Amino acid sequence: MDDLIYKKAVFYVMSGTGNTYRVSRWIEETVNRDKTETKVVMIEDADFNKDFNHSNDLLLGLLFPTHGFMPPWSMIKFLFRIPKRSDLPVMCVATRGALKIGSLHIPGASGFAAFFAAIVMFLKGYRVKAIFSLDMPSNFINFHWGLHPKNVDKISKRSQHRLKLLIPRIFNGQRILFTRNNLWEILWCVLLLWLVPLLPIAYLIIARMFMAKVMFSNNDCVGCGMCARNCPNNAILMKKIGSKKHPYWTYHCENCLRCMGYCKKKAVEAGHSWAVLLYFITSIPIISFVWVWLHEALNFFPVKSGYLTIEAVYVFNFLLYIVYFLSAVFLSYWIFWYLIRFPFFNSFFSLTTLTHYYRRYHQPETKVKHLVSKKNKSADARDSSVNRKAAMPS
After folding, report:
1. pLDDT by residue (tens digit) across 197-225?
2. Which residues contact 80 (CB under 8 A, 6 or more apart)?
3. CA dihedral in degrees (276, 355, 255, 208; nearest 10)?
4. Which of 16, 122, 207, 302 is the most buried if burial means most Cβ atoms within 10 Å?
5. Does the pLDDT of residue 258 top 80, yes or no?
């Protein structure tokens, strides 16, 4: 590590429950701050004019979690915002959720995630020096029990050891492109393209339109607003119901689970019973009812009459379903959100979701204050100052 080619590094990080943020700090420790000037920047705080310079010894790092075998939507938008640069070296790192059951280590899969980032950066003129994915404890706590602390520690130590082998090579100028790790991800890409080619796109859509609309707060919620203030996408609104405010999840939610992982009251739930009900609501064959009404009430047969082709009918059906799906999800969630202000309904949906019994997870070494953007911290400081002044006797 004495003769590093890259003496400076800027790491742009997107992190929900702290896994990816912690990886950036481990990399920092590995290259040794005394020898390399490193800077970790959450993507919400990126200032390209200040962060970039024309130094020949600067390495740019992009670190993000995997959402449905792709980068999160906020990271994709960030990648397209990054200015074009000629020949600046870049490292693309995707964290992925690994599991450990007894002695069995089950690796995660990032699929297209790191490759997608690398392709975008290559097309913008950057030199891609490294592409790899890294196992971190799975934080998908809306679907499974949080891992036991011992297993979290074992997965984390394994990843730290891997970084200690990889990072010095990267900072010494080696390319890390063709590895067994990337072969594993390529196999996943081929499998997905063969079996479910639209899965990454579908996941990005579903995560925004469906998963966000099963989130709610249980009766333990005190309306503190921590989840809303610390949301990286400003996707949670605190709306008043009766005498208390409750969090309301909007379509900006990307299911990063920071709200669930860091809520001290364990008040944030992903409603499994509500998700089942919502699935049936969105599955109502509304298209069939529309055609039956057209046929019986208006005696309208567009295909027979020559007004529409079969292909046009398929397009009409698809557009009609999209309109119905969006309307049904939005209106259903609005009704659901008002119902949960009543303790009986809130208790019912809380007790019938598995997240009520799951162990929660966030990266043990990472506090929520490490993840919050400087803009949000400044706003909180201003709000606290105003509140203190208001509370002072005149």
Report:
1. 777 777 777 767 778 889 999 999 999 99
2. 120
3. 10
4. 16
5. yes
